[in-house]
Amino acid sequence: MASLLKISSALRRQTLVAGARAGSSYAAAFRSALSNEPATEVTTLDSGLRVASESLPTNVATVALFLDAGARYEDKQNNGTANFFEHVAFKGTTKRSQSALEQEVESMGAQLEVKTGREQTVFTARCLSKDVPKAVEILADVVQNPKLDDADVKRAREVILGEIEQVDTDNLRKVVFNHLHSTAFQGTSLSNSVYGPSSNIKAIKADDLRGYVNTHFKAPRMVLAVAGDVRQAELEKLAEKHLGKVESTFDGKPPQLSPVRFTGSEVRVRDDSIPLAHVAVAVEGCGVNDSDALALSVASMLIGNWDRSFGGGVNNASKLAVASAHDKLCHNFRSFNKTYRDTGLWGIYFECDPLMCEDMLFNVQNEWMRLCTMVTDGEVERAKRQLKTHLLAELEGPYAICKDIGRQVLRSGRREALHDMERRLENVSAQNVRAVGMKYIFDRCPAVAAVGPVENLPDYMRVRSSMSWVRL
Question: What pTM was estimated for this model as a whole?
């Protein structure tokens, strides 16, 4: 993998400076690098727990335990439970006190973290490769034997309520995306926020957390992923030893993802005391394993991202970035393609001055319509090279690789090799991009979320009417 990373770094430099001239030499070097990629090994134990690893020539490793648990598996009554458990997970177990756990981790020079999302919860340990057995044992102890002391639950409740208040005031981007999910997927579990409402947080008790663990922490819903100087056979033995007692049967029906429904709609929170308008506009995308997912990622890369701090805005390949820099339409924008198991959100987020909302949105939708009808082969080739660069940059080091392994294995049971991805990406043409644009974007009802001084943002019917062009 070390050689791959060195080559990929060179490839990224080629992409930035060589442009279209790189052509076939770029493609050949890229394929040569990917052909040396280490294989990802995946084994399913008798209990249903999956063990996945990638052996890397490095002294550091990342161990992660992925679980099918998150805000999307919750309802209105228990929304926020998964995130609540995140805050008490490392407060000690029935075998280790909190101080003993912290001292043990510190003596290893390791780092522990847990993150909760809408569809997954991830427990991670970063350590030396020689300490992987110990890290696996610690993570197994944390998920199987949580202490869940009432005093710890009370302190965690205060912390979470403080975090919710801080996010509402200091992280408007996260606020906007929470609103975007709540309006786009209203009436379904995908509208749940990760934090949950304050009323739920105030009501959650230790018994609720124990019920959450007993319901979701089952072997078929877990993936043990490791990236570092490790061997798959050894990991299988460690998993059997430390996670072999995780139950594989459910009391009643196993938790299932409820069907989702996208609703074209909007939510606006007008607050003129905020200096900038924060706006997100999105249409319904596709699931992560859908055949259209890669073409939509290329389409998102075509729109690109831009910030006032970037140099050379008027010379940017993205036409929207050029317009933003030349006409001072916004302070920054970022196109996104968020994918979940069975649906997604494709759109853009931007921050702009109050009086520029209408002009910025006009340019965004104009570029979307152009993407659906007139995008060229040259633009798509450039976007494909940028996407390759982005994908490689996201896989530098054991931590990023481990996260990629766990996410893919948990969702689809396997990890797609980079050379397979590259081959699929090469097959994406301008015609494919225009086709997915017409399927997902053109004449579709968008979801809109806006926070701040948004009086100048066009009303929803005007936004909807601009999602198509009259064609003769």
Answer: 0.89
